[in-house]
Amino acid sequence: MKVIQRWAAALLLLAASFSVWSPPAEAATAPASTKVLEEVRKIVRQYYVEPVSDQVLKASTPQDIVKQLDPYSAYMTKEEYEEFLKWIDMESVGIGVMIEEDENGVHIMSVLDNGPAARAGLQPGDVIQAVDGQPVTNETMEKVLSLIAGEEGTTVAVTVWRPSTEETVSVTIKQEKIDWPNVEFKRLAGNIGYIQLYSFDETAPAEIERAIRSLSGVKGWIFDLRDNPGGYVETAQQIAGFFPNVKQAFQLRDRSNHPEVYAAVKQPVQMAGPIRLLVNASSASASEMLAAAVKEQKAAVLYGQRTFGKGSMQEMFELSDGSMLKLTVAHFFSPKGTPIHHVGVKPDVPTVVGKELYAAHRDLLIGQLKGYQSLGKLRNAPVDKTFVVRFSRPLANTAVSGVKLYQLGGREAAVTAQIRRGTELLIKPAAKLAKGQSYLLVIPPVLKSKDGVAMKKGAYMEIQTAASTK
User: Which helix (DSSP H) or strand (DSSP E) does residue 66 occupy?
Assistant: First the structure.
């Protein structure tokens, strides 16, 4: 999970449907430890997704029973649960970065605008190698999170490797309350709407509705579920309703194995036009539920890598002594019954890790260029390059308009275009292009030759800038 301030809660909320179980009155006279053990046995026997043997239920502690179930079931004592809740209360305190594991440390994927990390100079692409002098190269994500998420007002020393400049940078950052939005959206080059959802919490449907309304008039959509660990089942049903033609959200099977199909909740606004859905190996649970539904009902094309494969749903049961049992009570499938658990959802268009957005944006843009001719691909282009397109006939145009340069996954880059030597079209970006990025150069059919022959087709060229100027 890459969103630090949501991480603790995400573990608890993975495709979770919460309920509180009240212990039976007849157990009230039993000693506390025995009473809780019997409560756990009764709940597991009645609600666990699969029948459990008497041998498992004879275990002498709740921990020993749960240990023999699936990895998503857990038991927390009252003290452990209280500590966990304290951790959740602290989840909004941090340095304001999104991270993912990296072979050299921890990769910073995004930095909150005007957050503590941004003010200290950290940048997307930096790799955290040490925290307070402690190397994190071979540490688990849990360990790294515990090091960089502390109490408000405390400081943490972070050492990063910056690949773009090949230098090591050390900064001291004060930890603050972080208000990172659960939904981010923007208008990409070529008038493509982009929405990223970080978790399926209760606020997500209203935030997505606001995003769709704010991006009205776009020619296509990219809906990003990469690294999304899931959330509430009910939220997944609601979000499915933003996709046109999605009538069913998922299929659920409890220990009876009887399939029950749940409907999508139609929303007051929907995404119109072609939709691309981004997933990766960290898209889990409710993310997979949504991905399977839209793929099966052909409401979106999936880009990325096969998803995590967590097709199980948990419920929370509060016990008589204040301890908590999180128990897997059902498995979910696509609406037509395609398995997700231990399988994941396979994308329609597999991509290299980290290139999902570029691939989806490229395909949406090229989809707008019906009848245009491809001029091929230009690789390792200098960031300050002027592009030259040569024509076989002298051109009559004195001014050229409508030429576009789109950064894939980003905004439009400003360019000027002019005729040189009669047969050459010069296209010059107003500023240097970004290193190691992909662009699409689009030339509309606006040119005419001096003898009056109009350009029959528009043209486009795919451009990859050099990753280094060395």
Answer: helix 62-67
List, in order of start, the domains of the chain with CATH numbers. Answer: 33-68 (no CATH), 74-177 (2.30.42.10), 183-316+328-359 (3.90.226.10), 371-465 (2.60.40.1220)
- Across residues 169-184, what is the average pLDDT? 88
CA distance 446 to 370: 15
Report the distance separating Cα 161 and Cα 152, nearest Å: 26
- Tell me: pLDDT of 12 over 60: no
Kindly list the strands in the beta sheet with 412-413, ordered across the sheet, starting from the edge strand earlier in the chain.
373-381, 459-465, 438-443, 404-407, 412-413
What confidence tens digit (pLDDT) does each residue in 418-443 have? 999 999 999 999 999 988 999 999 99
- Please list the alpha-helical segments (H only) found in 316-462: 356-367
Tell me the β-bridge partners of 134.
131
* Cβ neighbours, 10 Å, residue 419: 18
Q: Phi and psi dihedrals of 385, rounded to 5?
A: -75, 140
Strands (E), 217-367: 221-224, 248-253, 260-263, 275-279, 301-304, 312-318, 324-333, 349-350
The Cα–Cα gap between 32 and 20 comes to 19
CA–centroid distance for 6 within its chain: 13
Task: State the DSSP H helix or E strand holding residue 234, giving kind and residue range, or none if neither.
Answer: helix 233-240
Residue 230 near residue 204 (C-beta atoms within 8 A): no
How many residues are given for the chain? 470
Give the tokens for residue 324: 């908590």
Which residues, in sequence order, are CB contacts of 421 under 8 Å at separation 6+? none
Helix (H, G, I), strand (E, B) or coil at 424: strand
Q: Secondary structure of the chain: what % helix, strand, coil (to 5)?
A: 20, 30, 45
Exposed/middle/buried for residue 50 (C-beta within 10 Å: 0-12, 13-18, 19+): exposed
Residue 454: band (very low, low, confident or very high) from pLDDT cuts 50, 70, 90: confident
Determine the distance from the C-alpha atom of residue 257 to the mean position of all C-alpha atoms in its chain, rounded to a whole number.
31
**Residue 3 gets which letter from DSSP?**
B
Distance CA 445, CA 463 (A): 20
**Quick check: helix, strand or coil at residue 428?**
strand
Range in 22-31, 86-95, 265-274, 315-324 the model is least confident about: 22-31
Distance CA 280, CA 346 (A): 9
